[in-house]
Each structure stands twice: as C-alpha cells, then as structure tokens.
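Morning F.,

Quick status update on the modeling queue. The single chain you submitted on Monday has been processed. Sequence for confirmation:
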Amino acid sequence: MIAHPYLRAYMAGAFLPTLVLPMLLTVFIVVRLVLQWPVPIERGMIFPMAMVPSIFGLWNILWTGLHGHTHHPIGLHGAVLPLLMAPVGGLIACRLGLLQFESNGVFWFQAVHFPYALVAIGWLAAMAGYYLVWKYLIGSLNRVLGIA
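Structure tokens below.
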C-alpha cells in the first residue's frame, strides 16, 4: 500500500476522536438532563467535536511527513499536541465567555472553579493520556494502514 499515505494518515488520526467524542457528548448531555447538573457543557463540546478529529488527522499527517527525517516516536509526537491545543482552546473559551482566568484559578462556565495546581495536573495527565493514545491506538492504526 504505497498510494496516498497522507490520506491514510489523516484517516488513522481522525478515526479515534470521531468515534469517541459523540459518545462523550451523549454522556454529558444525559448527566446534564437526568442529574440536572446546571453546567451547559454541551455548549463547550460542539466546537471540539468539529475540530479535534481534523486536528488529530492533520497532526498524524505531520508525523507521517516528518517521520522519515526526525525518527521521533509517535507517542512523543502525540504528547506535544496538548501543548498546542490547550492554549488555543483556552483562548477560544475565554473569547466565548466559557472560561475566565482569575488570580487563584480558572472559572469554567461561570459555575466551576479549578485552582491552577489542578489545571497543571490536568495538563500533565492530558499529555500522558495523549502519549498513550498516540503510541498504542493511533500507532497501531498507522501500522494497519501501512504508514508507520
């Protein structure tokens, strides 16, 4: 399978978030409607559902293009992605009024407060999670499609 490696890389990268994000949205909406949680989380989920699969696909295309030159592992490549996505997502959330930065933490949806220490731990956990997802799931999809 030599034809269209970048198309296959895009499909391998976009597959997992395309599969997982609608399930997460369903869980969040059920929690909001059944448990009457007052946070309108679905407002903050629609934009990521549209962008994250494309970002994953493009990030996998970048890894495919750079892999012949840099030879860095795909897990490390995936762990860098939250370093790019979180600041951009935070900026967009601030502009939409979904996130406010305060002196002692962040206020999410004007209802939930997270101290900066918890945000930092969450960021490190996201990097570790992305490392594992990219190393084992996206990497195996790349091998199945013959681009690894």
